[in-house]
Design goal:
Distance between the termini: 25 Å
Largest sheet: 5 strands, parallel
Shape: globular
Number of strands: 12
Radius of gyration: 18 Å
Length: about 250
């Protein structure tokens, strides 16, 4: 889903799943769930542009936080990218927001670039981590949510706080969110070489999806060419301009 005027992907109840699912540039939330969704998403890439909402938002049911079945999706190998410093309208979007009694079973997540913090779990959703109904393994959160929103962080939650150093996650046609040659430890050697939704060898986005016009894609090819040192001289100006227009999250 690309440039949705509302939320990108929405699951309301049921057990539906998606594999290699993408939501880019949504005006609302990248992926949202509610009302007892027990399915999952594997190989998930969400990228929010300036002015977009949170990356992932999970609810159970506003009519009753403990209504069954409880929302508890499996989110595995997910890369969730915000706009970094390039936000508009005072937007304080969160990378992953759990509320209204939603649980989660999460494995191998990368969340980076959200001005409102990488993670918030509110009220009953925070308690579910302590009670063991929410499971969490192999998360890289940047910046550190304990510094940004300590009141919204479940006690004892383990994660790595470091810049994920992904190859190119500017809000730009055809991003390359693969890990760099030196990904942060300890996640750099975990999960069969994956860091979030991608390993170092394959950017599976290139196989079947394009985010922009042919002209914009060509501009990106030129930028990569300059970045990799195949051209020199005045052409570096194009890369500098692209970095200014499409900054990478810090």
């Amino acid at each position: 889903m690309h440039v949705s005027a509302g939320d990108g992907i929405v699951f309301s109840g049921g057990t539906a799943t998606c594999t290699r699912c993408v939501a880019s540039g949504s005006a609302g939330t990248g992926l949202r769930w509610e009302r007892g969704w027990r399915g999952g998403a594997t190989g998930l890439f969400v990228q929010q542009g300036p002015g977009g909402g949170s990356g992932l938002v999970g609810d159970n049911d506003t009519e009753g936080y403990d209504l069954e079945p409880r929302s508890r999706p499996v989110i595995a190998r997910a890369t969730i990218v915000g706009p970094g410093s390039d936000r508009r309208g005072g937007n304080e979007a969160v990378g992953l927001l759990l509320r209204s009694g939603s649980a989660i079973d999460a494995n191998s997540l990368v969340v980076t670039g959200f001005s409102g913090g990488a993670l918030q779990a509110l009220g009953r959703s925070a308690q579910l981590f302590t009670e063991g109904e929410s499971q969490w393994m192999g998360a890289l959160l940047h910046p550190d949510p304990r510094a940004d929103s300590p009141s919204g962080l479940p006690e004892g939650l383990e994660y790595v706080s470091a810049n994920p150093r992904l190859q190119d996650i500017r809000y730009f046609p055809n991003p390359d969110p693969r890990p760099s040659e030196s990904p942060p430890e300890p996640l750099g050697t975990a999960d069969e070489g994956y860091l979030g939704a991608f390993d170092r060898e394959r950017n599976w986005l290139d196989e079947w999806i394009s985010f922009g016009t042919p002209e914009a894609t060509w501009q990106r090819v030129l930028s990569r060419t300059v970045r990799d040192g195949w051209s020199a001289g005045a052409a570096h100006t194009d890369t500098d301009a692209a970095d200014e227009l499409f900054p990478s999250p810090r």
